[in-house]
Specification:
alpha+beta; Heat Shock Protein 90; 2 domains; 5-stranded mixed β-sheet; elongated
Length: 415
């Protein structure tokens, strides 16, 4: 009989061991899985392997006869660790949450099961027979609560994703629940390894597959966003340089001496700031203001009726390159240039939630619904808005009244 049981052990144990070993190897080699999730998956694999070992030891002690102290210790370990594995699944679904109340539940469950060493409150083993006390289902209750919590996290933390991606974590929850029910109310496997341990091995593998697909998807979206930002920057830079040179060209006819001064100023500006023009990442707001001042000074020389004023006490933050300058350019070229006294005001301040930049003008205004119909290659407000959203998680809003003026508000979150 013992030989038959050992054979059954091997038939079930070898596939489980190979699955866990394969999981460890792919997690270590997968470049897409984040460091935190990698550590969680590896820790889970180790804990699940220890639970499989606990199953085998419990079955071994049962076959050997009267060894209650050792069997009690092994059972305490199993009842304490199983909910811990489930809680680690919570961190895989929602890694940014602390899940503190559930750690308290885990501690209470572990303490209850430790009482088996000196009381019958939770469980006890007598004549090598397992007996459940009045609080003997503490592990089951805590595990059920955590399973419901995982289900809640799955449908809230992943709400913005494709619903199809919810299938794997939902199936995992069903597998673990089914394994616990079968172990408690039906029977143990002939191998001595519980249905719950088998379900946990499968769940660990499925969670890895789910995380891998999620990280690959996020990586592809990040590459797509980076590619779009680079394309937009390649469009904006020639646009900015072309308009500045056009202004200098116009000055050559109106006032050659001013054109000479502006050309010298623009040359100095290019020497000092060309790196920022080719910068796909965030730059200091002060650097962006420098770009804007040079451009607006050139435009104010060309159009004496235009004034650009600055009220910028808050400069200690970063923005995407060429964020403010294109908006000031739009305000001058399409708004205030027609006014007898056209005024553009650039201001910045710190609010309770972000760094706020406001570009306001007294120009002719426009219908803001036209922004929604602008195509992706449009160089202007839509372009700046998309880069602010993607590069720093900020927002850009536009308010405009026909024949009154336009106000553009940028909100850059605190970093």
């Amino acid at each position: 009989m013992k030989d038959f049981a050992s054979e059954i052990h091997l038939i079930v144990l070898i596939p489980l061991a190979l699955q866990l070993l394969g999981l460890v190897l792919v997690v270590l080699l997968d470049p897409y899985v984040g460091k935190k999730q990698r550590r969680l998956l590896l820790l889970n694999a180790v804990l699940i392997a220890s639970l499989v070992a606990e199953d085998i030891l419990s079955d071994y002690f049962l076959l050997q006869g009267d060894v209650p102290p050792l069997r009690t210790l092994v059972s305490i370990y199993g009842y304490a660790v199983r909910p811990l594995v489930l809680l680690l699944f919570c961190y895989l679904v929602a890694p940014d949450k602390k899940h503190t109340p559930f750690w308290i539940l885990l501690g209470a469950n572990a303490l209850l099961n430790v009482t088996a060493l000196f009381s019958h409150v939770c469980f006890w083993i007598e004549n090598n027979q397992f007996h459940r006390g009045p609080l003997g289902f503490s592990c089951h209750i805590v595990s059920a609560i955590i399973l419901l919590y995982i289900l809640y996290l799955t449908f809230t933390a992943q709400a913005k994703r494709d619903r199809f991606q919810l299938i794997i974590p939902t199936v995992n929850i069903a597998l673990v629940f089914a394994g616990a029910v079968m172990d408690t109310f039906i029977a143990y496997t002939q191998s001595g390894i519980t249905f719950l341990s088998v379900a946990m091995v499968s769940s660990a593998l499925f969670y890895y597959i789910w995380l891998h697909l999620k990280f690959v998807h996020d990586h592809e979206k990040a590459l797509e966003a980076e590619s779009r930002i680079r394309i937009m920057m390649s469009q904006i830079q020639p646009h900015f340089l072309y308009n500045t040179l056009s202004s200098i060209q116009a000055l050559c006819r109106i006032d050659p001496e001013k054109a000479f001064d502006v050309t010298e100023k623009f040359g100095t500006y290019l020497r000092n700031n060309i790196d920022s023009l080719d910068q796909p990442d965030l730059i200091p707001f002060a650097k962006e203001l420098e770009h804007t001042r040079v451009y607006s000074e050139i435009e104010m020389i060309r159009f004496p009726n235009v004034r650009v004023n600055y009220d910028v006490p808050d400069t200690d933050f970063s923005v995407p390159a060429l964020t403010v300058q294109p908006l000031v350019e739009n305000a001058i070229r399409h708004g205030v240039r027609i006014r007898e006294e056209g005024i553009v005001t650039v201001s910045s301040r710190t609010t309770d939630r972000c760094h706020e930049i406001v570009i306001a003008d007294n120009g002719k205004g426009f219908d803001t619904t036209l922004l929604k119909t602008a195509d992706g290659s449009h160089i202007g407000v839509r372009n700046v808005q998309e880069r602010i959203e993607k590069m720093c998680g900020g927002t850009l809003t536009v308010e405009s009244i026909i024949d009154k003026g336009t106000t553009v508000t940028i909100c850059i979150p605190f970093r």
